[in-house]
């Protein structure tokens, strides 16, 4: 279970403070994959980083039971001057997993071929996220935190990831932030909307999507 | 951080602490391996350079020194005198220098919640200290083979002095690593304002007895000067310093180390946001 208790976060900008989360109190139910929708700049990435403990909230705290992934995205957590193999071994070590297993799983699942032993800086954005998702799948998390990046790679590879996540859904949940409702529709059971510092969880996916399209038209 | 956060957070149990410690040592070990890869993985000559650089410095300063005066300082053989000043000084200077960029150059790693700013800074420090210790031992063994008889009078004293140099280096490293993401010109400050004067004024090229009294008193305010005097006293049978004070050196080293940790503690949140 992941629970946000009175979480607030604001940033200092040139024109004062920008509140991203205003006393957010939300429980993400066990076994459900939740999509979080928000317009550009609503603070989706900040939210997912706070859920993943990559960034502390200003006030409040986050309760987590089970193993939570780092926020998966295009680049998060990886340095360009190391190869995919070296990065995979690093992840295995900090999560206390077998380096051999993680390395082999990642190499096979990512289908990077000989690029697996090239520095990550030589990768395209799609290859980077393919790598990031493969390592995280190798680690067997209970929660996968995803920042937008499901949408990379060719159609066949996207399908491979979708199936892999589908399979994991029995034991794992996805919390995914996106501004794209298609992504949410394909991957999630329910959705929440982040708007004006408020995070509202909807039981029905279609209610959330409906309100989101209203927000989009109003913003446009 | 407000008080509400502390009071609302779950209680800390002993088992949590032991889990946290084992996670942290795992993370630091992973970071050390990673740093080794980033530093020496692509450039196979990297380690060779780590050995050659101090060796070249020794050669240059032996040359300069020998051309100015004919006697050796304090009765110590000139080449070993230089070596046993320059390489240990690197323990201070390079440890500080390597740790300084730790936060700024590892920012992508903070996506992993178990990786803290403390971990990335200390990992660099540990790697540098291990590396320089290896270089020091290799050079001493090499010197011995080359015919300069290397006989250490009090090995534990040498170890202790090297420990103090590392401690000061780490203290400064923690401080600079935590400040430099917020103050970009910090690298110049640590190099020019601190590194160079200390390089000249810490007794790498001279002993305290060879400078006139009033200047000596001034130089002996510098704890590094004390440590190098103590180090050479412990190393050479030929030399016992009347000036090196273990109490003064140790107090300074511990204070600088504590100061560095305090600065890090105060700045770490801001430092992450700063980059």
Give the helix/strand layout:
The complex is a heterodimer of chains A (220) and B (275).
Chain A: E1 2-13, E2 16-28, E3 34-37, H1 44-51, E4 59-64, H2 84-94, H3 99-110, H4 125-138, E5 143-147, H5 155-168, E6 173-178, H6 181-187, E7 190-195, E8 198-202, H7 205-219
Parallel strand pairs in A: 3-6, 3-7, 5-6
Antiparallel strand pairs in A: 1-2, 1-4, 7-8
Helix pairs in contact in A: 2-3, 3-4
Chain B: H1 3-8, H2 14-40, H3 46-68, H4 78-100, H5 102-105, H6 117-145, H7 155-179, H8 186-201, H9 213-219, H10 223-235, H11 246-274
Helix pairs in contact in B: 2-6, 3-4, 4-6, 4-7, 4-8, 4-10, 6-7, 7-10, 7-11, 10-11
Structural description of this entry:
The complex is a heterodimer of chains A (220) and B (275). Chain A is α/β, with parallel strands linked by helices and 220 residues long. In chain A, 37% of the residues lie in helices and 26% in strands. Chain A is globular. The termini of chain A are far apart. The relative contact order of chain A is 0.19. Chain B has one domain (13-274). Chain B is 73% helix and 0% strand. Chain B has 11 helices and no strands. The longest helix of chain B is centred in the middle third of the chain and has 29 residues, at 117-145. The radius of gyration of chain B is 21 Å and the shape is globular. Classes of the chains: A alpha/beta (220), B mainly alpha (275). Chain A binds chain B through residues 5-6, 49, 52-56, 58-61, 63, 68, 70-71, 75-79, 81-82, 86, 89-91, 93-96, 119, and chain B through 1-2, 4-5, 8-10, 23, 26-27, 29-30, 33-34, 37-38, 41-42, 106, 108-115, 269, 272.
